[in-house]
Amino acid sequence: MTANRQHLPRLYLVTSGREHTDAAGLALRQAEAIGASGPVVFQLREKGLETARLYDLAQRIRPLLEQSGSPLLVNDRADIAMASGADGVHLPESSCPADSIRKAFPGLLTGKSVHSVQSAMDAAKSGVHYLLFGPVFATPSKARFGAPQGLEKLEQVCRAVPIPVFAVGGITPEKSFACIERGAWGIAALAPFLDPGALSTTLETYRSYMPI
């Protein structure tokens, strides 16, 4: 496994969620585009795929990410993550308890999405290795979680837990620096990373706002 729980990459890519429809093959092209461009956390978030296809896709993506040292995480499917040789699993806030996942799959890097300070504290106590918190800024993909929470709430979450926090939701390269200043370890995004042809350049642009 490539993941280092103490030194996660600061950039976190979430796949489109449309592999079962019009974007079939996009996640694979994204993994190919990352290549040797530097490590990112790569979350395979494809709820619409049936189990066999999700497993196959994870298996195909994993070796593509290894050359850049990018950990592969499967959304909410620890069984698929373990069976495919992925590095970890990412749990939605409403998923089954993280400590149960960790007991059943102790070798997996485990992260969780949270939307409040209390949820962040509870997740950290359960033993997860990192958190995604948001939405920090306005973004259509996170509108169902309510109004943007803002930088002040992000800072409160980062201060409340001893594990890395990735800020998510409407984060452009320019806004990423403000998130880091407030205590975020890194930033997560979906829409900015959808174009495989521009992915390497986009990642470098984000990295230019990140600490070394």
Task: Write up what this structure looks like.
This protein is α/β, with parallel strands linked by helices and 212 residues long. It has a single domain (11-207), classed as Aldolase class I (TIM Barrel, Alpha-Beta Barrel). Helices cover 38% and strands 16% of the residues. The protein is built from eight helices and eight strands. It has an eight-stranded parallel β-barrel, surrounded by seven helices. Strand 4, helix 4 and strand 5 (109-114) form a beta-alpha-beta unit. Helix 1 (26-34) packs parallel to helix 2, helix 1 crosses helix 8 (196-207) and helix 5 (117-125) runs parallel beside helix 6 (150-160). The chain is globular, with a radius of gyration of 16 Å. The protein starts with 10 loop residues before the first strand and ends in a 5-residue tail after the last helix.
Which descriptors apply to this entry?
8 strands; TIM Barrel; 212 residues; alpha/beta; 8 helices; 38% helix; 8-stranded parallel β-barrel
